[in-house]
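Honest question from a wet-lab person: if I give you the sequences of every part of a complex, can you actually get the arrangement of the whole thing, not just the pieces? Trying it with mine:
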Amino acid sequence: MDAFNALVFVAAVYALTLVVALFVVVVVIALRRITADRPKAAAAEPSSPRREEASA
Amino acid sequence: MIDQLARIFEGISSFGQMDLQTVAIRLALIFVGLLLVYLSAKEILDPLVLMPMGLAMALVNGAVLTIDGKLTNLFVDPLLSRPDDVLNGMQIFFLQPLFTLTFSNSLIACLVFMGIGVITDLDFLIARPLQSFLIAVAAELGSILTFPVAVALGFTPKEAAAIAIVGGADGPMVLFTSLELARHLFVPISVVAYVYLSITYAVYPYMIKLLVPKKMRGIVMDLRAVPRVSSRQKLAFAVLAGTVLSILFPVAAPLFASFFVGVMVKEADIPRYRKFLDEVVLTGSSFFLGFVLGALLSVSVVTDPRIVLIMFLGMLALLLSGIGGIIAGMVAYWLSKGKTNPLIGIAGVSCMPTTAKVAQKCAFQVNKRAVILPFAMGPSVAGVITTAIIAAIYVGLLR
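Yes, you can. This is the full assembly:
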């Protein structure tokens, strides 16, 4: 493998890492929605006072 | 008479049996070992790993003796590979059982990871997953760009990947990748990584001061804006993320399993297990990690002429990752219209929790009200996971 091919290779690795990381983000967001209680799920903004109150 | 004295004081007489260059390297290693102990004692470097490492380095290079006509020591021989030799080695070298049974199979990395999992705070990662992961991916710049540089310098792709992963600033991951891809370079890469990871605490603040304007460093972030995350959510994340990542990357499944089992123990609030993983497993594995790595640094192992290149590439990897993290922090600052302190970017360089602490320290120096540690923990934890992903991709593609 020469330096140019190595650069192409790592560009692909980086892109794949980004894709997997975004997939984990999707998992986290889905999980938050699933595990939220109903009143929390109804809140439009996760950081709204209503959600914080419900969590507390 | 002289012969008898030479037999009694073999550590000294062994100098006479070496060429001048080897003697110089051996003396330098003793000096560096003592220096590491001194700097650790002064808390300039992280004493947890580097103090036992420094002591072992000094001792192993002092205690050279002749066995079967070969200059060696009684600590450990990492070059044994044949089963018979390993079995014999375990009767001779006192650290060989530890090396063979915990280093050769990456168990030590898994044990450290369990301990890291149990001290990990997932709140901000789950509250702000997108920001955390994007910063973490940007802070992997060193793990990526160092690879082609290493290839250009003559390393094989496997060796280049093992060296590049130093940019992930995650000790266990460096151990894992180098053991999987470049076992013959495992010692120099691991030692360089651990020494540099310790230095990041001293070097990154200067880099931050150079790249981030003072006004931005003191930005106060609103803790009330972070949504609360319940233990139940964190527990569910540990189980789900661990399972998903293990399905995606079976090759790194032991590391994911170790990390997320630590997180699970913490969030399930099982005090006895938590105490065990934190105080016994993490403490014990960090200690023996440092001690065995130091003992591995004998003169016969570090005479590889490429060690200077590995030192250069390790430094390059960490610097690039730091720069990537800071750039991501600046982008987060602009996107949030000045509400995000860009220093949280440096925390994306994993090395949990050191880089998050560095970010907090630099923010405090400018503004005593700037509490950013909880925010910095998000990218820091994401950095651990992202480094594991890159390591798994490297190992999966190159082994």
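Two things worth pointing out. DSSP finds three helices and no strands in chain A. The interface with chain B takes residues 1-4, 6-7, 9-11, 13-14, 16-18, 20-25, 27-29, 31-32, 34-35, 46-47, 51-52, 55-56 of chain A (CB under 8 Å).
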